[in-house]
Design goal:
CATH superfamily of the largest domain in chain B: HUPs
Largest sheet of chain A: 9 strands, mixed
CATH architecture of the largest domain in chain B: 3-Layer(aba) Sandwich
Strand content of chain B: 25-35%
Radius of gyration of chain B: 22 Å
Strand order of the largest sheet of chain B: 9-8-7-10-6-1-4-5-11
Largest interface: A-B, 75 and 86 residues
Number of domains of chain B: 2
CATH class of the largest domain in chain B: Alpha Beta
Strand order of the largest sheet of chain A: 9-8-7-10-6-1-4-5-11
Radius of gyration of chain A: 21 Å
Order of helices and strands of chain A: EEEHEHEHEHEEEEHEEEH
CATH class of chain A: Alpha Beta
Shape of chain A: globular
Helix content of chain B: 25-40%
Structural class of chain B: alpha/beta
Helix content of chain A: 25-40%
Number of strands of chain A: 13
Bound molecules: flavin-adenine dinucleotide, adenosine monophosphate
Oligomer: heterodimer
Strand content of chain A: 25-35%
Order of helices and strands of chain B: EEEHEHEHEHEEEEEEEHEHEHEEH
CATH architecture of chain A: 3-Layer(aba) Sandwich
C-alpha cells in the first residue's frame, strides 16, 4: 500500500488579506501560513490508514522553499517522506499537471487531498489528477474505511449523501468529519528532522496569468434595532422585499 | 471561436435561477464573440420552451447517468459528443457533479478550467476571468490565451445583459454515460424536507449561543415560516448538535443568499468568510461587543430565546 497526500499551504484562516505595494498581488508578508485545513483532514486520515496497514505515506507540495517548515510538520505527524515541486502554484491545471507528472510512474494506491484549497477554493485539482491518471475519483469524502482491496466511502453529493464502495487506485478529496486534526508528538518532531524532503524541478507552465487582485470590502449598514422593537425588523425586511 | 456549451442545473423540472442567468449571459456572449451555436447540457428532462431564451441555442442534450460518475471511462460518451460538436468553450455554475465532469473534459481536451468566476471578458489576446478567492475575501483577475476554456461560475455571479427572449426551435438529444463494475453504490441518503443550504434565498444561522441541541426548535420554526434553510457555526456541527452539512464558513458551505439571519453567533472571521456574499445580514446576539455587529446590516442586541419567538409571532400574525 502506497499513499500520497497533496497539501496546499495557505494563509491562516484568521488572516486579513491585503494587497502589496503594486496593488495587484496579495501581500504575503506578515501572514501566518498553515497547511490547508481540508488537506490536514486528508493527512490525518492517511496517517491512521498508515498505522492500520503499514503503508508508505508520501507528502507532496507544489510551492516555494517558504513551505518547508510546514512540510516538516507533516513529516512530524507521521508521513515517511516528502516531495516539493519547486514552483509557485498559479492555477489548478498547473498544480494538477505537476501532481500527475510526479505520480504517474509511482503506482500510488491512494491519493488523498483536501476537498478544496482555501486560497483558490477551486475543488478541482483532485478530479483533474484522477482523470489524468485514470484513477477512480470521489469528493468530498466524509468517511473512509479501508477494507483490504476496497474502500467504503461516505461522500457528499448535490442531493445529500451517498455510501459507495470503490476499488483502488483512487483519488479522494477529503473533508471533515473524516478524521480529527492531529498534533505532532515530541518524538515525531525529532524523527522528522532526518526525514527526506526531495526538491523536484517543475515540468509544466501555468495556463492562467495573474493580472490583478482586489480585496473585497463589503459595506454593511450597521443599523441597530432596539430589542424592545425587535418585531419592527419584520416590517423592515418586508419593505425591502427580503422576505 | 467555434461553439459554446452551457451546463445547466434542473431542479424538479425547473431551470435553476443561476442557470437562467448563465443562459442569458451565454446568449449575449455567443452573439458578441461569434459563436455559431450554443449547446445546452443538463442531467434531467426539460421542456424546450423553458430554454427558449436565446436564438443561439441549437440543442438540448440530456445526459443520462446510469450509476456513479467517478471515472473518466464513464464520461467518455460525453467527451465524444463535445468533440463532435466542435465545442471550444464551456460555461457552468459550480456544483459537485458538474465540477467532476468539467475536470474530466478539461483534462481530456487540455483546456484550462477556471473556478469561481464572477466576470468573464474578451481582451485582445485572450480572455480575462475575475474570480473569487480566499472564500470571497478577495478577487483575482487572470488571463487565458487561446480560444478554449471552461469557466466554472460562482453561484453569486450576476449578469448585466438583457434577458433572452423566446425564439427558434430547440432540438432535443440524449447522451448516456457508461457504467463500471469496480465501484458500487451502497446507499443514498437524500436530503429530505429541508431547503438545500447552498441555493437558499434566505438562511437562518444559529451558533453556540443556543447552548443545547434541544433548543433548535425555534430556529427551525423561524426558518420554516420564512421559507429559509438552516445553517450553523462550526463548533455547533463539531459538537454534533447539528449535521455537518449545515456548517457555514471558510471551512464549510459558502452561502450567498439575499438574507442571512445570524443568531447567537459571535462572527469569527472564519465564519464571516463563508457568509460575506449575503446581500443583507441581520445579527441577533446578547453581547453588544460581538464582532458580528460590525458586519451586519441590521443588528439586535438581545437574547435569542426572547427575540426569535417574538419575530416568529410577528411573522405568523401577518
Ligand atoms: C481552521 C479553522 C477553521 C474554522 N472554520 C470555521 C467555519 O468555517 N465556520 C465557523 O462558523 N467557524 C469556523 N471556525 C471557528 C471560529 O473561529 C469560531 O470559533 C466559531 O465561528 C464560533 O462559533 P459561535 O459563534 O457559534 O460560538 P461562540 O464564539 O461561542 O459565540 C457564541 C455567541 O453567542 C452569543 N450568545 C450566547 N448566548 C446567547 C443568547 N442567549 N442570545 C443571543 N446570543 C447569545 C455570545 O454572545 C457569542 O457571541 C474555524 C476555526 C479554525 C481554527
Ligand atoms: N500547491 C499545491 N500543492 C499540492 N497540493 C495542492 C496544491 N494546491 C492544491 N492542492 C491539493 O488540491 C486540493 C484541491 O485544491 P483546489 O482545487 O485548489 O481547491 C487541495 O485541498 C490540496 O490537497
Amino acid at each position: 500500500m502506497k499513499i500520497l497526500v497533496c497539501i496546499s499551504v495557505v494563509p491562516d484562516t484568521t488572516s486579513k488579506i491585503t494587497l502589496d505595494s503594486s496593488n495587484t498581488r496579495i501581500n504575503s508578508e506578515g501572514l501566518t501560513f498553515i497547511v490547508g485545513p481540508y488537506d490536514d483532514y486528508a493527512l490525518s486520515r492517511a496517517i491512521e490508514i498508515k498505522e492500520q496497514t503499514q503503508a508508505e505515506l508520501v507528502v507532496l507540495h507544489i510551492g516555494t522553499a517558504d513551505s518547508e517548515a510546514l512540510i516538516r510538520k507533516c513529516l512530524a505527524l507521521g508521513a515517511d517522506r516528502a516531495v516539493r515541486i519547486d514552483t509557485p502554484a498559479f492555477d489548478s491545471f498547473q498544480v494538477a499537471q505537476e501532481i500527475i507528472q510526479y505520480a504517474q510512474d509511482q503506482s500510488f494506491d491512494l491519493i488523498m487531498m483536501g476537498k478544496e484549497s482555501i486560497d483558490y477554493n477551486s475543488g478541482i485539482v483532485h478530479a483533474l489528477v484522477a482523470h489524468g491518471l485514470s484513477y477512480n475519483h470521489f469528493s468530498p469524502v466524509m468517511h473512509l474505511d479501508y477494507e483490504g482491496d476496497k474502500l467504503v466511502l461516505e461522500i457528499e453529493t448535490d442531493q445529500g449523501k451517498t455510501k459507495v464502495s470503490s476499488a483502488l487506485p483512487a483519488v479522494l478529496g477529503c473533508q471533515e468529519p473524516i478524521a480529527e486534526w492531529k498534533i505532532p508528538s515530541m518524538r515525531g518532531i525529532m524523527t522528522a528532522r532526518t526525514k527526506e524532503i526531495a526538491v523536484v524541478a517543475p515540468s509544466h507552465a501555468s495556463l492562467e496569468q495573474h493580472i490583478s487582485a482586489q480585496v473585497v470590502e463589503t459595506e454593511r449598514l450597521q443599523k441597530m434595532i432596539p430589542a424592545e422593537n425587535a418585531e419592527s425588523l419584520i416590517d423592515l425586511l418586508k419593505s425591502e422585499n427580503l422576505i | 471561436m467555434k461553439n459554446l456549451a452551457v451546463f445547466i442545473d434542473i431542479k424538479n423540472g425547473q431551470l435553476a435561477d443561476s442557470s437562467k442567468r448563465l443562459l442569458d449571459f451565454a446568449g449575449d456572449w455567443a452573439g458578441t464573440n461569434g459563436a455559431e451555436a450554443i449547446y445546452v447540457y443538463g442531467f434531467d428532462h426539460i421542456s424546450s420552451d423553458q430554454l427558449n431564451s436565446h436564438s443561439f441555442i441549437k440543442q438540448y442534450i440530456h445526459i443520462k447517468i446510469p450509476g456513479l460518475v467517478n471515472h473518466g471511462q464513464i464520461m467518455s460518451p460525453l467527451l465524444d459528443d463535445v468533440k463532435q460538436k466542435g465545442i471550444s468553450q464551456i460555461l457552468y455554475v459550480k456544483s459537485l457533479l458538474t465540477d467532476t465532469i468539467a475536470s474530466f473534459l478539461a483534462k481530456s481536451l487540455s483546456v484550462p478550467v477556471v473556478s469561481n468566476v464572477l466576470k468573464l471578458q474578451k481582451v485582445s489576446d485572450g480572455y480575462q476571468f475575475t474570480k473569487s478567492i480566499f472564500s470571497g475575501k478577495a478577487l483575482l483577475t487572470t488571463q487565458v490565451n487561446g480560444d478554449s476554456f471552461i469557466a466554472a461560475f460562482s453561484k453569486a455571479f450576476s449578469v448585466d445583459v438583457p434577458q433572452g427572449t423566446g425564439s427558434s426551435s430547440i432540438s432535443q438529444a440524449e447522451v448516456s454515460l457508461g457504467t463500471d463494475s469496480q465501484n458500487k453504490l451502497i446507499e443514498n441518503y437524500p436530503l429530505t424536507g429541508s431547503i438545500p443550504l447552498p441555493d437558499a434565498a434566505i438562511v437562518v444561522g444559529a451558533g453556540r449561543g443556543f447552548k443545547d441541541p434541544s433548543n433548535w426548535g425555534i430556529v427551525e420554526d423561524l426558518a420554516k415560516e420564512l421559507g429559509a434553510a438552516t445553517a450553523c457555526s462550526k463548533p455547533v456541527s463539531d459538537l454534533n448538535w447539528r449535521p455537518h452539512h449545515e456548517h457555514v464558513g471558510q471551512t464549510g458551505v459558502k452561502i450567498a443568499p439575499k438574507l442571512y439571519l445570524a443568531c447567537g453567533i459571535s462572527g469569527a472571521i472564519q465564519h464571516l468568510a463563508g457568509v460575506n456574499g449575503s446581500r443583507k445580514i441581520v445579527v441577533i446576539n446578547n453581547d453588544p461587543e460581538a464582532p458580528f455587529f460590525k458586519h451586519a446590516d441590521y443588528g439586535i442586541v438581545g437574547d435569542v430565546f426572547d427575540v426569535l419567538p417574538r419575530l416568529l409571532n410577528k411573522l405568523k400574525s401577518h
